[in-house]
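[INFO] parsing input record for Histidine triad nucleotide-binding protein
[DEBUG] input buffer:
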Amino acid sequence: MDCIFCKIVEGTVPAKKVYENEHVLAFRDIEPIAPVHILIIPKKHIESMNAVDGDDWGLIAEIHRAAQHIAKQEGVAESGYRLVNNCGRDAGQAVYHIHYHLLAGEKLGWAKTN
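[DEBUG] output buffer:
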């Protein structure tokens, strides 16, 4: 399998890790679109949200727990953050290993007008 995120999990590709436990890994995006841009992935390869099934739902909950922890760790839990999952080509999924973007550090998108 030629999955860049699996290689990061294996340690064969470097990443700036910010969180890790038995099931989840989080690291800084190499092309950030916000002051805080962290990718949160399950260590198990799952292609996309459409492939989540059975026991995988526990990994989705674990990703959300990790996001909550990371937001506090990064100092953005109170000011706010966005958690985004792109599923499929038309949604902008570029790496076919399910992942979430934690975005924060400034007002984002439509939030700028509110």
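[INFO] The chain has a mean pLDDT of 94.
[INFO] shutting down worker
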